[in-house]
Structures are given as structure tokens and as C-alpha cells.
Specification:
Strands 1-2-3-4 form a four-stranded antiparallel sheet, with no helix packed on it. It contains no helices and four strands. The chain has strands spanning 12-15, 20-32, 35-42, 48-54. It binds zinc ion (ZN).
Amino acid sequence: MAQQFGEFTASELYCPKCKTSQPVRERLLLVLPNGELHEFLCAHCATSLGKRTVTGPAVAPPPRGRARHAAPTRKLLR
Ligand SMILES: [Zn+2]
């Protein structure tokens, strides 16, 4: 039995079509503001086997106020 265990990445996933685990191809699906959405495709039949979101220490988006509460404005009267 010569089994190789390298680093465990998601290099193989179970494919329901092939009914066995297959090597996967990762492709960039979408670029999100806070990361990237990657998709895993079966290298054999190109069935989508999963997705993962890669969030990296990329450019942090400025915190846009969804709750736009009014800042307390002080009247400056002299
Ligand atoms: Zn497959």
C-alpha cells in the first residue's frame, strides 16, 4: 500500500456523478468585496462539488454605514 498523504487541501472531493472522490479543479467564480468565491469542479466530469470563500487580508473596505444614524451635530453659535 503506497498511499501518499500530502498536505490536506481540498484537492479531492467526492463526486456524486463519478461516485468516487476525484481531483478537483478550483476556479475563481466571483470576486467579492471581502474576498473571492472559488468553486471546486470535478476534474473528470466538471460537476460543481463545492464552493469556498477565500477571505484574505486584502483591502479592507471602508465601513459603510448601513445604519446611517445621524451624527450629533452641534450648533456652533457664538
Ligand atoms: Zn465527477
